[in-house]
Amino acid sequence: MSGAAEIVVVGAGCVGSSVAFRLAQRGARVTLLDAGAPGGGTSGASFAWTNSFGKTPRDYHELNVAGMEEHAALVKELPGGGWLHQDGALAWEDSPAGWARLEPAVERLRGWGYAVERITPAQAREIEPELRIGSDVGRVIWTPGEGYLEVVPYIAAVLAAAGRHGARVLPGRRVAEVLRSGDRVCGVRTEDGGRFEAQVVVDCAGVAAGEIARLAGLPVPLDRVPGRLVYTGPVATTLRRPIHAPGVHFRPDGGGRVVLAEGAHDQVWRDTAETWPADRSLAAAAAHLPALAGARVEATRIALRPMPRDERPMVGGIPGLDGFYMAVSHSGVTLGPLWGRVVTAELLDGALDPRLAPYRPARFL
Q1: Which candidate among 51, 151, 191, 338 keeps its CA 20 to 30 Å from the CA of 62?
Q2: Which residues lie closer than 8 Å to 72 by C-beta, 6 or more apart?
Q3: DSSP class of residue 311?
Q4: Is the dihedral of CA 140, 250, 234, 83 positive or negative?
Q5: How far is CA 329 from CA 40, 152, 250, 351, in A?
């Protein structure tokens, strides 16, 4: 497909904005549609930890490492770059059961060449002086290559770059129909009656990706997994990194605010789970970061995460249906810039990426 291809990208989150940017940069005529505002869905309510700490198997781990590398390269490529904070992360446990979960991951990562170290609590406090680490904790896990992303500023930067290359970004345009001519997708129609013809439609719609796929006639098994984040008001703290402490994870969120998640970095709230009040989560974090004592909860956000049924990415075209391509994954923040490069190479150069062999949507169809 030539660089002047007409391409519609659906979804202006971390993945869709990255895809639109790289396609437009290569000369494609890109129209990016979003049902709401760019970054207003799952991307804007993500803990946004850039990492490959718990990503298995090995090939999926390597994809996430490549995503982290793409983030670092993009900071140098685009003006500003203040959206990326890849200054490392700290983690520890305070119980045998907790360490039994954490230590196997550390050993696996060391064997895979991932930057991970065991350091003393005193060394951890040199990195983050305000942390309170229990006297019974003998070691802390330091991952110097990890960090977090300010997702909405990132999306703004890549969309501005896409616009400089001629991409059209159209928010508030919900797709109501995927246009087909036999076994070929030829565009979309939006709820307001807009018709956008294209040689390829790229489905980056996150939790709505399954709906877009169904409009194209594809029954894709995509779950919507809820998660809650808690945001504090401004706090006088020097915290700089994601912290994974027993029972709670937290990181800076700009303007002195701290964002935290109870239990896991994307806490899953299921019907059978006992919901913690936000203040209880804040108290759990304050036990490890005393600067949070007396802080107030400013907001909570509950977002749905796109989760393919096997919890692995879906990236690629559809056998027997030309002109339709999917790019959906749970780790969209870490992987977004990588998907931008991969999708562009596959669509414009026909260069299928062998790393994605286990992750094609066709495995479900």
Answers
A1: 151
A2: 84, 86
A3: S
A4: positive
A5: 17, 18, 23, 21
> Do you find a cis peptide bond into 57, omega within 30 degrees of 0?
yes
All structural domains of the chain, each given as residue ranges with its CATH number in brackets, are 6-69+151-221+309-364 (3.50.50.60), 84-147+224-308 (3.30.9.10)
Q: What is the pLDDT of residues 4-23, one digit of tens each?
A: 899 999 999 999 999 999 99
pLDDT for 263: 57
How far from each other are the two terminal CA atoms of the chain, in whole angstroms? 25
* Mean pLDDT, rounded, for 108-131: 98
H helices of 3-150, in order, are 14-25, 58-77, 96-111, 121-127
What are phi and psi for residue 119, nearest 5 degrees? -125, 170
Cα 209 from chain centroid?
A: 15
pLDDT tens by residue, 251-268 = 999 889 999 986 544 445
pTM of the predicted model as reported, rounded to 2 decimal places: 0.94
Which pLDDT value is given to residue 224? 83
| Residue in 230, 38, 241 with CA at minimum distance from that of residue 145 | 241
* Short-list 26, 20, 32, CA closest to 3: 26
